[in-house]
Amino acid sequence: MDTQWPRWEVFKQDSPNKPHQAVGSVHAADPEHALLTARNIFARRPQAVSMWVVRAEDIYSWTQEEVAEGQMTKGESYQAQVGQYLVFRKTSHKRSMTFVDYVGEVEAATPEEALKKAQATFTDALALAWWIVPADRVYKSDPSPETIQSWFAPAKDKTYKQQQYYATVGSHISKHKVGRGVEDEE
Amino acid sequence: MPVKYGVPSDPDYNERLAEFEARIKRGEKIEPGDWMPEEYRRQLIRMISQHAHSEVVGMLPEGAWITRAPTLKRKMILVAKVQDEAGHGQYLYHAAETLGVSREAMLEALLAGKAKYSSIFNYPTLTWADIGTIGWLVDGAAIKNQTMLAACSYGPYSRAMVRICAEETFHHKQGKEMVLLYAKGTPKQRQMAQDAINRWWWPALMMMGPHDQDSPNTEVLVRWGIKTKTNDQVRQEFINEHAPEILEAGLTLPDPDLRYDEKTGNWLHGPINWDEFWQVVNGNGPMNKERLEARRRAHAEGAWVREALEAYAAKRQRTAVAV
Amino acid sequence: MRSEVREALIAKLTALADDEVILAHRGSEWTGHGPILEEDIALANIVQDELGHATLWYGLRQQLDGSDPDQLAFFRDAYGYRCCELVELPKGDWAFTMLRQYLYDLYEALWLEAAQHSTYKPLAEAVQKIMREERFHLQHTQAWVERLGQGTDESNRRLQQALDMQWGYAQQLFVPIPGEELLVAEGIVPDLLPLRERWLEHSTRHLQNAGLKLPINPGYQPTSRAYHTEHLWSILAEMQSTARWDAEAKVW
Ligand SMILES: [Fe+2]
Ligand SMILES: [Fe+2]
Ligand SMILES: [Fe+2]
């Protein structure tokens, strides 16, 4: 049986005052490897200053529909005593590259309780989806300036993979109205 | 997660289906965990995994020229581009995984020859100018399709597409820049560019798939907001943009019937050779065997690597528990 | 700058760049063929970085003698290339590739750290840029060596085999090129002797922690960069085939 390694959800922070956002997932063997991999996949282009990874199976998710239907339990609950939970939320149906954004932490005994607390705490916008993550399951990239320089800054110099680098190519479509496909054929 | 993939035999199916379709009409995104028809899920898995396979197999024709790129810059650009295709495959497998299908299973289907991928990648890259032409035409055609899919109703697929489109624009532009440069270059460069256009034009038009009347899935896909345009609409957009630009560059297109239609503002093309298309789809293209073989080899040769890291992680887990 | 120093610096920059070009070439042979998508992408990052480093080193040479980087890369033959033999060896399996990249990255990271205070400003500036990327490379390849070494019996065996093969070749990284002592005396580049000590210490510790057997009988240790393995000719024939295909072409 093949293994593609476990899946880890990746949260990327674009700049220091923006929230971490769910950008996708990576397949990796262990936490350190998952962080390195997340950097390799999701920081090929700017912007990033920090990344978090969480094993996909350690995430508890609820959509608005599930909440409305009162589906409050999520399989076997994570066996935790009282602890911190990270809360992520999606608030818009607009087209986007990212899913849920980090909004803060709550203290709770179970993911279900964390969800209830999150609903009571983060009331500034309608939640279309919630992700609740036990804090001890989150692995974070090193916040030192040295690591930020080495992991995230170089992408800014790789201008050849940004479309603006080729901006002046060709002319606009509106200029072309007449002509036959083969008129220039030798 | 309780499975909520509805089937018509469910007592509340029609009611839920109406709700579901109303959500799509309102422009809401369907997210993992939401109720959806099993058929919606099935169609998405089919489309997304095919799309992912196409990105991954699509690395091969261009990848073959990385070691022969003519300048340091072109080499870097090409590595970045082929790398992006791997990234696109990676994002798309992720989107499919949210529907409860594993990457292991999707890859197994690909390697067993049971899964489809875009047949354009079963054509060979014969010269360096093919690299520019693929970027301009093949990525150009892909962008048209992907821009449409970025609006699709399934959240994870839509998000993957938004990310992919942003990257794909670079692919398109670097290819176009190259072809335009060679079209104005030396006689040999010009000839190389023209030859590449001649070989890739028709396969690029086939990329959008059969004509609408021959495309059985289109209706349901449009109704559920997976596709928002038909194959022929997307094909027309592609031709309208690319045909005039190629002609303006002083290159020709291998279609004697191609003409601009004043009334509709469309560039009309001659008949597409669908026999060739189906030949390639059904495994008889020039490169079908080689492409699949390359994927199989990479997968087989990587098996011990994947096992090693899994073993390492298991050992570390044990030590962590012991401590 | 005295002309002997200038000549030596040109030669050193060429050697630095040639190493990166050929190493990147070998790495790029994996693109599309890696053991898993994520690692295909990861190695392609390293390849792009190393090509970028080569471009920077050739660029510094260009400032000194006006030579064009692409001319140097695509129109010099095996007689003219000054890469070390380690980077020329065929790509081998994933263990071979990761180990070579690790041994090279460790050398490069240590060299850069020591070259930060070069008295030659343009070089010191380039070092700052390159160093950021090499820190990450080293983290990445170090992680791979540890995991393959401690993974399965098979991965350990393959890694050990790669090490036995590469160890002697890697020593060439610390052989000064003719005239290098002039550059060291001027504080332009670091002395390779103490660097070698640090490299040996770091690599030995990490490799042993990964469960590999050291010391190793190094066997053949190349010294001159004027001669190469039997592979370089073919690498260049392939790499330069498009650039040389059209004698009239000025731009690509
Ligand atoms: Fe793509
Ligand atoms: Fe480097
Ligand atoms: Fe490196």
The low-confidence runs of chain C, each spanning 5 or more residues with pLDDT under 50, are none
Mean pLDDT of chain C: 98
Number of helices of chain C: 9
Instruction: Tally the structural domains of chain C.
Output: 1
Identify the CATH homologous superfamily of chain C. Answer: Ferritin, core subunit, four-helix bundle
Radius of gyration of chain A: 22 Å
The rounded distance between the terminal residues' Cα atoms of chain C is 35 Å
Please estimate the helix content of chain C: 55-70%
Bound compounds, please?
fe (ii) ion
Instruction: Calculate the mean pLDDT score of chain A and round it.
Output: 88
- Please tally the β strands of chain A and state the result: 8
**Helix/strand/pairing category of chain C:** mainly alpha
Strand neighbour order, sheet with most strands of chain A: 2-1-3-8
Strand content of chain C: under 5%
What is the CATH-assigned architecture of chain C? Up-down Bundle
The two chains with the largest interface, and their residue counts, are:
A-B, 57 and 72 residues
User: Can you tell me the overall shape of chain C?
Assistant: globular
Structural class of chain A: alpha+beta
Secondary-structure topology with pairs:
The complex is a heterotrimer of chains A (186), B (323) and C (252).
Chain A: E1 7-13, E2 21-27, H1 31-42, E3 50-55, E4 60-63, H2 64-68, E5 83-90, E6 101-108, H3 111-121, E7 129-134, E8 139-140, H4 145-151
Antiparallel strand pairs in A: 1-2, 1-3, 3-8, 4-7, 5-6, 5-7
Chain B: E1 5-6, H1 13-25, E2 36-37, H2 38-57, H3 59-63, H4 72-97, H5 103-111, H6 129-149, H7 155-183, H8 187-206, H9 218-223, H10 231-248, E3 259-261, E4 266-268, H11 274-284, H12 288-322
Helix pairs in contact in B: 2-4, 4-7, 6-7, 6-8, 6-10
Chain C: H1 3-28, H2 37-65, H3 69-74, H4 94-115, H5 121-150, H6 153-170, H7 180-185, H8 192-209, H9 232-239
Helix pairs in contact in C: 1-2, 2-5, 4-5, 4-6, 4-8, 5-6
The site of one fe (ii) ion has 6 residues of chain C, from helix 2 and helix 5.
Overview of the structural elements:
The complex is a heterotrimer of chains A (186), B (323) and C (252). Chain A starts with 6 loop residues before the first strand and ends in a 35-residue tail after the last helix. Chain A has 4 helices and 8 strands, in the order ββαββαββαββα. In chain A, the strands form 2 sheets. Chain A has a 4-stranded antiparallel beta sheet. Chain A has a 4-stranded antiparallel beta sheet with strand order 4-7-5-6. Chain A has one domain (7-178). Chain A is α+β, with helices and mostly antiparallel strands. Chain B has 323 residues and is mostly helical. Chain B has 2 domains: 5-286, Ferritin, CATH 1.20.1260; 287-323. Chain B is 66% helix and 3% strand. In chain B, strands 1-2 form a two-stranded parallel sheet. The longest helix of chain B has 35 residues, at 288-322. Chain B is globular. The mean pLDDT of chain B is 95. By secondary structure, chain C is an all-alpha fold. Chain C has a single domain, classed as Ferritin (Up-down Bundle). In chain C, 65% of the residues lie in helices and 0% in strands. In chain C, helix 4 crosses helix 6 (153-170) and helix 5 (121-150) packs antiparallel against helix 6 (153-170). Chains in contact: A-B, A-C, B-C. At the A-B interface, strand 2 and strand 4 of A face helix 4, helix 5, helix 7, helix 10 and helix 12 of B. Chain A: It comes from Meiothermus hypogaeus NBRC 106114. Chain A: This is Phenylacetic acid degradation protein. Chain A: InterPro entries: PaaB, PaaB_sf.
